[in-house]
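Re: the request from the purification team.
They wanted to know what the chain is likely to look like in 3D before they choose a buffer screen. I agreed to run a prediction and write the result into the notebook, where they can find it.
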Amino acid sequence: MSPFRRRHVGTVAARLAEGWNGLVWGAPLSAFKARFPRAQLTDSDWWRTGAGTESFCGVPMAITQYAFNARDELFTIAFIPATADRDRLSVAAINELGAPDGMDLRWTAGDVVVTVKLAGVLAIATHPTYSDR
């Protein structure tokens, strides 16, 4: 079987276009804290839900971090797989998101830009409307 199955193309992209994990893009930090009462701010100013492991494109993430702009609006999410899962991330993203927007592993879902970094080290979803950092 080809590693590039196209079973659910569009499902993750449609969810990302709207938001992630029950939050819309631009959601206030207060809504994040209300949804995730065990949320914690990291030393690097990223937020984690405290709700356990998340998955992105079917790959479990060791770390998922949420970033809020200066107005406390959700604008970026970083998905970081465990080292053992890094080789699966790029293929999983292609299976779920379809063909990339060019030669890089980059997709557009609505206004959201999704990038998988080299060797599957991480995937980043950013809504540029809310990005002011």
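For the purification team: Confidence is low (pLDDT under 50) at residues 1-9.
Please add any questions underneath this entry.
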